[in-house]
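Study this pair:
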Amino acid sequence: MKHLLVAALCLLTSACASWPKEGQGGWAENFHYGNETPSVWYSQSQGLLQHDFDHLSLRLEIMRASGIRQCMPAQHKLATLMQNRIQRQMAASMFSQSQHDIVVFYHQINLLQNHFTEVNEKTGCASFTMSNTLVSDTRDAALSLLNSDNQFAFADDNLTPKYRDKIKQAAELLKLFDSVELLLVGHTDHIGTPYDNIQLGIDRARKVAQALQDEGLTNATISTVSQGESAPYSNETTVAARLSNRRVVAHILSANGENPTHQTGNSTYGTNIPLLYWTQALNSEQGERQ
């Protein structure tokens, strides 16, 4: 028994005193505390982080305008604390922490929105009233999302992952309106027959419409049309220019029954004359580039 104890003690002592040879120390061998660069710890650029934060902040501001302070003051306070925390982190260039907390903030806002909707439906504790300024800001933010990263691969109507993410964010904003009327216009580059490009353009617009519906946008009337190759973003024929021409352009014709107006000559028209308005919307893209 004594010999066994001695042998065990020697084994433990040798194991504790033995060290891996140089080059066999795993990740710890190359770790140098305090020498990390920010790019190691976060994958998104500062601009993308700011964009995501602004998007979530707008959603929270809409809930504030809807009366969430009265219905759910404690949850609203927690969301505000997280919003302020991220804002301070962004100001201090603490981007790794910002990225982590923005993910948490995203789930917090989604849960808060769903809970607020359910509580308000059951208790009527708040009324959803958006000011004209907030309606305009929300509409502009949704338009910016729908018309960003909206390019397609050659002869293809599949949405890119980045564009699908933008559509998801746009749907989150558009669902906050009681009603929305959207016009989606599909475009192609100059390669191919005019007939095929018209069909490809409508297929692209319909893919965007379907993606919006898949995200739960049930309060929208969505119309899809195609201009094919007839309204290019750029008249150049480079690879980059052709990519910019393969796109879907979104127009919000009305939100909560309010119609943005377009002025032509001495007359101002709203969407009470839909075909005229749509024609103006379609022509405005090409006219701005001439």
Summary: The domain at 132-262+269-288 is CATH 3.30.1330.60 (60s Ribosomal Protein L30; Chain: A;). The chain has a mean pLDDT of 79. DSSP finds eleven helices and five strands in the chain. The first helix runs from residue 2 to 17.
